[in-house]
Design brief:
Shape: globular
Distance between the termini: 12 Å
Helix content: 40-55%
Bound molecules: adenosine monophosphate
CATH architecture of the largest domain: 2-Layer Sandwich
CATH superfamily of the largest domain: ATPase, nucleotide binding domain
């Protein structure tokens, strides 16, 4: 039986997963799927690597079906209907590693889980859900190795100055820092830059991760030196439903003058702002594009998105001291030619020139100028988790031959 890696991305009501065969140098995805509607109307769906549906199941008694039931369903499906595979190890996308988890970690001790739990206060909407499956699997399948991979870790290479807020030292020392997120995505892009152009690998590159969540990262020789997200995943660019950079005075005004509770203000800034809030229509770029001609609010949301991206890129070019390449990735970055065209038009001062026909065909290289160049590179966060798992498990095996996987 082939021991496979299961890569989990757990949210409040969903469990997304990919199953990898790790036997080759580069782990190969064999199945992708999700359980959505956890706690309400659960739906388990698995597709093979060609996109064919291989499992599709729903439950009537949704309220009794939590994350634990979802995990049991996944493991049982894999070990009964896919008899050639056995669960070798589980990798988890964990949003926050704080100051000290600057690399992936084997969760082989409850003390590690306790440390990660203390970070829940820094990412209350994500971290508790990310940690839940780790806890469940440690209890139910204690022999299965588990690796936690962090969205913040890639940014720990930044100089201290890029991680600081201008606030009293005591607050900084208590952990109020710019952590940055989307690190698994940036690590993937960084690792493949050389496949596209050696100049990118050795040079100054800005990566625009533009999906439902959105941020920018400045890479110097492949390492993060600055990013737009800060203490929380609210900062930086406007996103599908998140506000992006906001004068903190707005929050005080909401609390003091508008009598919002902290929870209500948080909900507005996380779930009712960004493209959705400005358009009053949708958080989805495809919907906004479809309505933009007749709906000025949809057009304004799109324009604000491109304007903020362009401004923040200007700031990161200053942090890098120049730019050799710009990379677009994630749902909007990889697919929305009009956003890319608007951003590149706003960067002509930096020497960017769009190759409009390459851009309309979503080709990898979309700049007419050779320097600086602009690219579309697909991201693959799950592959990064699988690669990190391989490294962590192989190091653990060398240290203690008893670790399986
Ligand atoms: P992600 O979070 O990376 O899945 O990205 C989601 C965002 O990508 C949504 O705003 C989608 O509307 C957008 N998106 C996906 N496909 C397309 C497309 N073909 N054209 C424009 N936007 C797209």
């Amino acid at each position: 039986m082939i021991p496979v890696f299961v890569v989990l991305n757990a949210g409040s009501s969903s469990l997304k997963f990919q199953i990898f065969d790790p036997s080759d140098m580069k782990p190969k995805v064999i199945y992708r799927g999700m359980v959505e509607g956890i706690g309400t109307s659960p739906h388990f769906l698995v597709k093979d690597c060609d996109g064919a549906i291989v499992a599709d199941k729903t439950w009537d008694d949704g309220e009794a079906f939590g994350h634990e039931e979802a995990l049991v369903e996944l493991v049982t499906w894999m070990q009964t209907s896919r008899g050639e595979y056995r669960l070798g190890a589980v990798g988890h996308r964990v949003v926050h590693g704080g100051r000290f988890f600057d690399r992936p970690v084997l969760v082989d001790d409850d003390a590690i889980l306790d440390d990660l739990t203390t970070l829940e206060a820094l990412a209350p909407l994500h971290q508790p859900h990310n940690l839940k499956p780790i806890r469940i699997l440690r209890r139910r399948m204690p022999d299965i190795p588990q690796v936690a991979c962090f969205d913040t870790a890639f940014h720990r290479s930044q100089p201290l100055i890029a991680q600081l807020f201008a606030i009293p030292k005591e607050l900084t020392e208590s952990g109020v820092l710019r952590y940055g997120f989307h690190g698994l995505s940036y690590e993937h892009i960084s690792s493949v830059l050389g496949d596209y152009d050696p100049v990118l690998k050795a040079g100054r590159v800005i990566v625009a991760h533009l999906g439902n969540g959105a941020s920018l990262c400045a890479l110097n020789k492949g390492k993060s030196i600055a990013t737009t997200m800060g203490f929380s995943a609210l900062d930086g660019l406007p996103m599908g439903t998140r506000c992006g950079a906001l004068d903190p005075g707005v929050v005080f005004y909401m609390l003091r003058e508008m009598n919002f509770s902290a929870e209500a203000a948080e909900r507005i800034l996380y779930t009712q702002s960004g493209l959705l809030g400005v358009s009053g229509l949708s958080n989805d770029m495809r919907t906004l594009r479809a309505h933009a001609q007749k709906n000025p609010d949809a057009q304004r949301a799109i324009d604000l998105f491109a304007y903020r991206i362009t401004r923040e890129i200007g700031s990161l070019i200053a942090a890098l001291g120049g730019i050799d390449g710009l990379v677009f990735t994630a749902g909007i970055g990889e697919n929305d030619a009009a956003t890319r065209a608007a951003v590149i038009a706003g960067l002509s001062w930096a020497g960017f020139e769009l190759d409009a026909s390459a851009n309309s065909r979503n080709e990898p290289r979309i700049s007419a100028s050779s320097a600086p160049s602009a690219w579309i590179i697909p991201t693959n966060e799950e592959l990064v988790v699988a690669q990190q798992m391989k490294r962590v498990l192989s190091a653990a095996r060398q240290a203690a031959p008893a670790v399986a996987g």
